[in-house]
Amino acid sequence: MAPPTAPNPTPTTADPEKNSGPHTWAVRLVTVGIVLAALNLRPAITSLGALLEEVRDGLGMSGSLAGLLTSVPPLCFAVFGSMAPRLAKRFGASAVVCFGMAAIAAGLVIRPYTGNTVAFLVATALALMGIAVANVLMPVIVKRWFPEKVGTMTGLYSMALAAGTSMAAAVTVPVTDALGGDWKSGLAVWAALGVAAVIPWLPLVREKRTGIAPQQPAPAPDARSAAPAEGDGLRIARSRTAWALACFFGLQATAAYITMGWMAQIFRDAGVSASTAGVLLAVCMVMGVPLGFVIPRVAARLPSQGPMVVFLGVCGLAGYAGLYFAPASGAWAWAVLLGISNCAFPLALTMVGMRARTGPGVVKLSAFAQSTGYLISIPGPLLVGVLYQHSGGWGVPIALMAALMVPQIVVGVFAGRNRTVEDEATAQAPTS
Q1: Whole-number Cα distances in Å, 192 to 161, 187, 229, 294
Q2: Across the chain, what does the average pLDDT equal?
Q3: For 165-179, 231-245, 316-330, 369-383, which range has the lowest pLDDT when averaged over its residues?
């Protein structure tokens, strides 16, 4: 009878985040934590986009410097996101996410009152550091706690992320007006959401882990012996699928951060009022609420996600064409189309979970695709700011946005093929 009893202590002691005590409460707490964390992953960016003109005037920024400001998010996501697996291995994924939420709150409450551009950028980077580690670890936590519901939980996470994004875009200007028109208070108020997100992760911080990648759930208890351990064997950079997914992630991030950083300004320059421009940005972001829940569920049921990539890309091309030819008269339609196109983000997250077969594979692929992807996305927002300043209008920047959508579709179709990075690594092993 020894063999039947041997597996029982292993899962209950080796994965404390998942199995300590009566774990039902922990699962519910993690669900709440995931939702609150997701709500915090974009307000730092879209609240700034809604008040970018006021911030530029207040800090004396040029258009090029404002472009640099909109490039800070992907830069921080690339740099700090690459650190997330090592931090989680040492301190535990939940502890790192908890720290990330605290960093978001601290950065958001500090940055409006720094008084100069450099300090504003540093405080923004603090908040973005918290966002970066949570970005990378959310797919890992979903895979660990909800291995049979990856599509559903990714959808819930994506929906909450879109809700936070659109909420910040929609209400930042009205809240600023209600606070006497002070843009500093209008930005700082979002720190409260970060404080709320710390709370559900605090009980899980005590569950210190010895490694980021736990054993696979019950259906595959010996997965560690069936795949390379983390850090051994699986050379993620040798996988063409991993590179395709990283490029897809980077190009969709480029489009998303250009949209979040500049779309409100495009509408304002076309004659739309500041409050309406903020609402239009919110409409664009809120499309991710229903679609962010639906797309991962549909994608998880398809062997290939290529058709979904093409559909989202065509919506983006149509939205950019509208912004180019009739930015004000068709503003609502363009906001909807670009909002649909921006749902490439939850699709990319879903593909991270589908293109890796094992827990260690998900960890490595998530870190690689997001860190590399965000590095790829850094020049886009900055280049848009430079082109806007030197061309004297939005025609050239919008043409650039549309041009980038074409390679996004191509690499997305390649990344959506039905294969895993572990299989590619195994196939390459004899020649390496």
Answers
A1: 16, 11, 40, 29
A2: 80
A3: 231-245
DSSP 200: G
3-state SS, residue 329? coil
Is residue 274 within 8 A of residue 173, CB to CB? The reply is yes
Give the SS3 label for residue 126.
Answer: helix
Indicate the pLDDT class of residue 427, thresholds 50, 70 and 90.
low
pLDDT of residue 425: 66
31 and 202 Cβ atoms separated by less than 8 Å: no
d(CA 387, CA 395): 9
Q: Which amino acid is at 154?
A: T
Q: Yes or no: say if 35 and 156 are a contact pair by the CB < 8 Å rule.
A: yes
Tokens coding 328: 């004000």
Q: Look-up: residue for tokens 């012996």? A: 225
CA distance 372 to 386: 23
How is 47-89 classified by DSSP, letter by letter? HHHHTHHHHHHHHT--HHHHHHHHHHHHHHHHHHHTTHHHHHH
Identify the DSSP state of 199: G
pTM higher than 0.90:
no
